Amino acid sequence: MAEIAVLSHKANIEHSQSALRDLVFRRDGPKCLLTGIFFIGDGAVIPRCAHLIPFSVGSKVRADVPHKSVSPFLRRQTQTHRAIETVTGNLVTAEIVHQFIKDPRNALNIETNAHDSLDKFLAWGIEANFVDRQWRYFFRVVRRGKVLVFVKARDGEEILFGQGEDDDEIDRPDPNIRNLHLAVARVLAALGIADVFDKYLEDDDVDEWHVPIYFGGPFVSDDVLMRRLEALAR
User: How far is CA 102 from CA 13, 198, 220, in A?
Assistant: First the structure.
């Protein structure tokens, strides 16, 4: 229990990615929940700790005033956070994003191909349903052609979190965050915006040495991001 407390402090306060990864190992066990591949032993792959709400969302700052002149709370009230609050009916607020951003409730360990399908292409999500007095989680395909081949989970298949040795002591995934991510992925795919994101990534690959920031990064204001997306969509 003491070791878990230390890891939680490192993950949430010191923003240690390795500590967050270790916490998720302790909750979910030593293999990728989507590919079935183990992270330790023969044939092991390197784990990627994925955030359903990206860490950059929690780190965004307002563009209308200098960073240091704004209180920590107001710095989190960007267009991105206001949109999240509106879409979820305040089930996921800017304060919740800040609280959960480096927490196991917002994370899972997955193999690289599964991570890229999620992070780069928004190709799949996790649906949380309250069934028989408990939350259950299901894999949902959003962009079938972008789900990379190593992902063995099928649409509608249940994802069994909590297979690790310390599951009872570590928070399960937050259902509101899971459903928010899935809803965003579905809307972007339905409107064709996901294809614009693909073009953004392709342009960055071609001109990678001249791109000072990554897509949606913590130091990219919402205004700058929207202007670039609008240019790509023309």
Answer: 8, 26, 19
pLDDT digits (tens, 9 = 90+) for 213-233: 444 455 455 555 555 545 544
Closest CA to 27 of 52, 58, 4, 60: 4
Q: Where are the domains of the chain?
A: 2-233
Which tokens is 175 given? Answer: 């259902």
Please give the pLDDT value at position 72.
53
Which residues have C-beta within 8 Å of that of residue 164, sequence separation ≥ 6? 25, 26, 27, 28, 29, 30, 170
Q: What confidence score (pLDDT) does residue 52 get? A: 87
**110, 21 contact by CB (below 8 A):** no
Crossing angle of helices 17-28 and 2-12, rounded to 10°: 130
Whole-number Å distance between alpha carbons of 124 and 122: 6
The rounded distance, in Å, linking the Cα atoms of 110 and 49 is: 6
- Which are the contacts of 205, defined by CB distance < 8 A and separation ≥ 6? none
According to DSSP H, which parts of the chain are helical?
2-12, 17-28, 55-59, 72-75, 79-88, 94-100, 112-119, 175-191, 193-206, 222-233
